[in-house]
Sequence to fold (88 residues):
Amino acid sequence: MADSTMVDIRFSAGGEEQTTVQFEPLGTSFDLENQDFIVLRTPREKVDSIQVEIFPSYIKVWVAYPEDRIWSDEHIILDRDGIEIARL
Fold:
């Protein structure tokens, strides 16, 4: 974890089917194979505003953005090796 002001939330694929994790409102998505995972690193103060919807083979994650803009780079997506693959 980067520092104590950030929180890591892990989203993983279970079972035999591919799982798609989609981050809204931008629609950025990642396809995960069996037992694979990604991590959302987000500011601690934003955790309460994150909403997660779980469906079979699909996870939708709504992250908070400032009201005056749709883009923010404060949410970081990491792969299973801890390498940054996207910013939301």
Q: What stands out?
A: DSSP finds no helices and eight strands in the chain. Strands lie at 6-12, 19-24, 28-32, 37-43, 51-55, 58-62, 76-78, 84-87. The two ends are 17 Å apart (CA to CA). The first strand starts at residue 6 and ends at 12.
